[in-house]
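[step 3/7] fold_predict: job queued, chain A
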Amino acid sequence: MEKRKILVTGGAGYIGSTLCRELLTCDYKVLVLDNLMYGGSGIKPFLNHPNYEFIRGDIRDEGLMEKALEGIDSIVHLAAIVGDIPCKKNPSLSIEVNLDATKSCYLLAKDMGVKRFIFASTCSNYGISDSSMQVSETGKLNPVSIYAETKVDCESFLKDESKKTGMVTSIFRLASAFGLSARNRFDLLINSLTFEALRDNKIMIFTPSIWRPYIHVLDISYLFIMALEADPALVRGEVFNGGNTCMNYQKFQVVEAIEKILGGNIEVKLIKEIEDIRTFKVDFSKVERVLGFKAAKSIEDGIFEIAQAIKNGVITFEDFNSNTLESISEIARKFK
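[step 4/7] structure written:
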């Protein structure tokens, strides 16, 4: 049976470029729509693949979106201004892209007969929760950033609209991503700390006791493909925490893993001052039970692969500098 055609918005990004590789490996036809806000490194490996198409454009362009949706079976919607600092520096743009354009994309997809819509949300929606308990999908949402607020608002819209349409709509609140991708990110904790440890032989970490869940970028791809191939009855109108329960860690535990993998005498400075007040332990039993999802990659795997790429010169200081939060927010400014 011929595989379906998937539209991946934001498919040149950190998650999208890895997802596209896995979709092509599974013989899907893939169309990516991306404005290349962060460059084109994520799409270079696929441009000559017979099942891959690329459209450069903005998801706010409804005419372009209509063209992109022709013949599409399913959408994985990743396109967004991602992260707390870029969104804080560009609040109106973030609402326009993350919320308004998502609504427009969904309604247009519904009108054009798209069968499935997968939305990438975030566990940051939980904001601050009681770390003595693991928060499930029914737990209280407590967004403490514009980024999370836009995701929560999108979720509310999608849950309401999914009741009115036959489109199979699934929401995934993803854990914090890590690991190598064709378009790397170094504003992510595990990636950033591993790089800094190798570059400076020291790590400085704020609020070391706070909790976060983690998921490798490759496992995110596996999770989305499982959702695309799942029985519609299992995923229709559902919200899933995206990750595995065993991968909740305090920040200092991530540092300990880095020290173990890298060896040597790394200077570690733990600063208890509050820089980021979010803390949450997440219950992923629903996605483990319903989809049978189990992470293939541990945080140690991610640390090791990043370290090897740095030591072998695959990742350089220039790569790190061009992917800092300040650089990313400056790039985002261009797309007001």
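[step 5/7] annotate
The chain has a mean pLDDT of 91.
Residues 91-111 form the longest helix (21 residues).
exit 0
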